[in-house]
């Protein structure tokens, strides 16, 4: 049996908490999961799926289907229930499928969960969101852009569509001082008259890289004598204000924004699942650090306090360790 160590080395220095499992054997894990389901020993299932990275979990799902002629996700749906089921199924999705799933969930049913929608759109890069659009179409037979149009209105629609289609025009690492000055002037003028013009804010904030925008924000704050948050709060309203506030927060410090999401929504399993699964291979170490600053308690200890049983063990495994 081949042991897959192919991508183990690339994870040194990562800011994620979940890394490739050394000595990984997909067939062995698939058999262990079948035994876990048969014996209703879900602790074993949790231990396996939370200690493999996403690429390895995809191989486990393929091996499971080859060995049993059944889809692993369908088997888990039948065996599990509630938040644990949702978490395990989330772990079996690819990153783009998971973000597409979260976007669809945010727009299903009565009303739209704007904060969940914005969390995905504001924290992901343009290239990633292009792939999410493809995954959304494959999973649901629907066009993400059309669903966004039907579930939002007015300037907020313009913002979310600009986010999903965003392309950063600056080359990261190069400082374009002329463009910085132009952007500062355009943003200041847009809020400088009685009738606020949201168009420059939407256009500039969705088409520049974060390094450039943080330089723009710093100059604009000096010019206006107030923080970006205050400018958004006092010049915009409704869903557009919410969208710009979240977008500015993510541009300034994405891990802090996500730590605040966790801090304010620990009772909402969908929020916790979204952050823990969505960021565990990206920057969960940074989110943990910001969470402890906010909460005076580590994310690990908070999970121990707020959750129980196999769900607690799964979330602790994704969190990985205590922050002293």
Task: Explain what you see.
With 324 residues, this protein is mainly alpha-helical. It folds into four domains: 9-92, Annexin V, domain 1 (Orthogonal Bundle), CATH 1.10.220.10; 106-164, Annexin V, domain 1, CATH 1.10.220.10; 177-236, Annexin V, domain 1, CATH 1.10.220; 258-319, Annexin V, domain 1 (Orthogonal Bundle), CATH 1.10.220.10. It is 69% helix and 0% strand. It contains 19 helices and no strands. Helix 1 packs antiparallel against helix 2 (42-49) and helix 11 (177-190) crosses helix 13. The protein is elongated. The model is unreliable at 1-12 (pLDDT under 50).
Tags for this model:
324 residues, mainly alpha, Annexin V, domain 1, 4 domains, 19 helices, disordered N terminus
Gist of the model:
With 324 residues, the chain is mostly helical. It contains 19 helices and no strands. Helices cover 69% and strands 0% of the residues.
